[in-house]
Amino acid sequence: MNDTIAAISTPLATGAISIIRVSGQDSIKIANKIFIGKDLEKVNDHTINYGHIYDKKELIDEVMVSVMKEPNTYTREDIVEINAHGSIASAKKILELLLKNGCRLANPGEFTERAFLNGRIDLVEAEGIMDIIESKTEKSLSLAINQLNGNTSNKIKNIRKKISDIETNIEVNIDFPEYDDIEVLNNDIIKPKLIEIRKDLNKLLLNSKDSQIIKNGIDTVIIGKPNVGKSSILNKLLDEEKAIVTDIPGTTRDIVEGTLDINGIRLNLIDTAGIRKTDDIVESIGVKKSISLIEKASLIIMVLNNNTEITKEELEILNKIKNKNYIIIINKIDLKKNINDNNLKNVIYMSTLENKGFDELKEAIIKMYELDKINTNDFSYLSSSRSISLIEKAIDSIDKSINLIDELMPIDIVEIEINKASELLGDILGINYKEDLFDQLFSNFCLGK
User: Fold this and answer.
1) Fewest CB within a 10 Å sphere: which of 65, 211, 328, 339?
2) Least confidently predicted of 174-178, 215-219, 442-446
3) Total structural domains within the chain
4) Is 203 part of a structural domain of the chain?
């Protein structure tokens, strides 16, 4: 990390401003080479300075340049941010000049990676930064902010401290058994402490699974035979003409997507091609896509016609979704009823023509996922699949250590599983250095962040 990196931090699009960010030990010196105004190497820390960017004698842009000196910066290195007019050509030219004068083009997420490697943030906080960028609802934003400000990390650290205290006492008992004033850690003392730790971890895990819904939303697929009203339902839910609606079966041949906010949770809606046997090659491909999406979706909305009997194909779909989260919509209740719905569960009766059943559908989703019970007062949850997986493994290690105690195994054997749990929590925070993991994680960030 001895080199100086640069990248455009704002989207490459026309806008009010473009920001080119530079970080490293030579950032101020390099920026000073192309800046005409105050001497950036002599200005006060954390100041913004007016001037111009020149390529030799050619004026490139009028700019405001922020100078921030280490260690009180995002990366804990010297940082310069050049605020230019929002021209793509201008931003690219300024970046080009910085690279010519000694900067290296930053990798995706490298600024945040340096913040982590320089000890300003841990991995949970780094993931929180990414989640802030990607947040699409107020709840997902609150979740990300709590990760960024350290609330979530502190919970992990506190649990890890409890484990560390047990480890320390075990080591003292093993190394210095002759001292009378040392607390003897017999099974009656260790087991209750481990049970308390397991309780803390289970609570964090449960809340973190809620956070997956807050962060990613609920992937919802609308399926059914052609012309049952799937596209009309999608359009009504989104309050826009997202999908083409006609009386001709097979109009929807590919997936149509949209998002809906329910209780601060995103519903990721996918309208699929009507499932039926067809000789049309294009429509057949759409049908195969529809069937494959059933396996991937978190929620299935199956649409049936009120005025027709359930077909063999529909029975096959109902059988396919029976072990998943599903809601059945019986649409077109404004028409004469011919469907036998006696054995159907999770049914909502709807008429897209008369705008009936939509509130009931939303309430059914809220009840199914208990969206009204998701704790909005404490957003100190883990939100990444990586972290949640590590919590599950840590719980498994604590469970194994408790079982070993019940089996009256020697304390040094019990300690092996306790150590594993501590290491796994350390992995969540990034305490244990794993270069491949870090490279993969930070590569998901946008360039310039």
Assistant:
1) 339
2) 174-178
3) 3
4) yes
